[in-house]
Amino acid sequence: MEQKWWHDAVVYQIYPRSFCDSNGDGIGDLNGIRSKLDYLQELGVDVIWLSPVYQSPMDDNGYDISSYQAIAPEFGTMQDMEALIAEAKQRGIRIVMDLVVNHTSDEHSWFQQACESKDSPYRDYYVWRDAKPDGSAPNDLDSIFGGSAWQWHEPTQQYYIHLFSKKQPDLNWENPKVHDEVHRMMNWWIDKGIGGFRLDVIDLIGKEIDKGITGNGERLHPLLKQMNQATFGGKDLLTVGETWGATPEIAKLYSAPERDELSMVFQFEHITLTWKDGDKWQPIALDLPEFKRVLTKWQLELADQGWNSLFWNNHDLPRAVSKYGDDGVYRTKSAKMLATVLHGLKGTPYIYQGEEIAMTNVKFERLEQYKDIESLNFYKVRTQAGVSHEEMMHALGENGRDNARTPMQWSAAPQAGFTQGTPWIEVNPNYTEVNVEDDQASSDSVYRYYQSLIALRKRYRAIVHGDFIPVLEQHDKVFAYLRTEGETRLMVVANFSGESLTVDLSEFSQSSAEALLSNSGRTTFDFNKLELKPYDAFMIKLSE
Ligand code: TEU
Ligand code: CA
């Protein structure tokens, strides 16, 4: 496969509202991000994926855009944005923008005009349908945020579709004018020197509403080819699609180089394993054998015909160390174990802000502490359907998106050094122990462990391009695998449990072993009877 710069890049995701507030209004902003570029450069990341900073009423914290070529005043100015792109570039860091074009905000001028009359030239920028004879919605499609996906518009006597909040009307991707408007805007941003796009719920733009089809419609890939050719194609940019419904087969359609669509996609099969029957509000415990099977499947099936993104969390998901590790006594050790397993895999790794210091879920006690529209909508919908307050509060504590959106914890100073003012959402009370300043002063620093992992990725081509070979595949508590290329053989071994155990790796007993990285300072290994302490993880270089 032809080498691309983003094959061995490491991406850091910033949720701007919660990263760093530079002007004391309690909301993170662009100048706050600029003040932390040295921190990110030292970590060793090559790309910042910046969640939306465009003008927005903030119904969905910026994923509801009212003007694509203007910066939301609470985040700063276009000059601040241009300065961020330039200063990041000076540090060898590219800025990947979040492209949210399945829908706009209802406050976008296109939608405002579409609502004026059925004859508006913008009417067909959106998806309108008549009510059924009895006045009810055209069909029973539900919003992903709970409730019906149809909103009645009284003045023009039609429904419009919104797969997310009713303030996020879906764009009509059957309308060539929408294609042209979006492509023009994308090229405007490309001309500003950005490093690429993260494409929000891009699998939905091929929707066929009257057939009840939302994801993976038959027009989806032709639309992506067309977008590629009209904008980022041939410009060596990183493009990553958010595709909740992707299987490895579908992921190849998006990311096989010869298809000229995207660089890679975010798939969520490993994430939804802890959702009972696909319902995120019924959280269930991690089943490691299933988790290993899914991750192994994606490594083997996408090996040379596409490209994996690698992530445990993002701004929509719970904190990795709480979800898949142990955010109590083994917080830092299990966070390092998770990082070792992820960064040893084949693909482009994504670090979500705070993951590099093992920030944890917040599990608020009171509903009012939560801000996320999805959580608040589902609390209403589910409790009205009879689910108890306690059960929904447990579900929000486990899988609510605000777990990832509490302010970045920079120090043990008030408000974790995130703001001089009152933060828009409460800081996780554990900021007094979990923060950048204390982590960097500690001999057990998680940040420095991530630095070492990122440096290893740059040093060993086998990590980026080597084959993935499962080891101890049947073990129900240990995840182990080889990465091989030419003479190089690296092995990752990770104890995903809080128990001490012994494993038999005698097939490697003839090899000498050099510990490239270990989360317990361990440097020697008896492969015949390898003892693993709770959450032990290491990457070993094997040589004959
Ligand atoms: O997310 C799509 C999406 O379906 C998840 O947000 C949703 O929360 C799901 O239940 C998984 O938790 C994208 C963005 O990442 C998200 O922040 C936006 O709210 C959403 O699209 C609408 O733009
Ligand atoms: Ca601010």
Give an account of the 3D structure.
- The protein has 544 residues and is α/β, with parallel strands linked by helices.
- The chain is 26% helix and 18% strand.
- The protein contains 15 helices and 22 strands.
- The strands form six sheets. The chain has an eight-stranded parallel sheet with strand order 11-10-9-5-2-1-15-14, covered by helices on one side. Strands 16-17-18-22-20 form a five-stranded antiparallel sheet. A three-stranded antiparallel sheet has the order 6-8-7, with no helix packed on it.
- A hairpin with a 4-residue loop joins strand 7 and strand 8.
- Helix 11 packs antiparallel against helix 12.
- 49% of the residues are buried.
- Bound molecules: 1-O-alpha-D-glucopyranosyl-D-fructose and calcium ion (CA).
- The site of 1-O-alpha-D-glucopyranosyl-D-fructose has 14 residues, from loops.
Layout: helices, strands, pairs:
Blueprint: E1 11-14, H1 30-34, H2 37-43, E2 47-50, E3 54-55, E4 67-71, H3 78-90, E5 94-99, H4 109-114, E6 128-129, E7 150-153, E8 158-161, H5 176-190, E9 196-199, H6 220-230, E10 238-242, H7 248-255, E11 264-266, E12 275-276, E13 279-283, H8 288-301, E14 309-310, H9 320-323, H10 331-343, E15 348-352, H11 373-384, H12 389-399, H13 436-441, H14 446-459, H15 461-465, E16 467-471, E17 478-485, E18 488-495, E19 501-503, E20 512-518, E21 530-532, E22 537-543
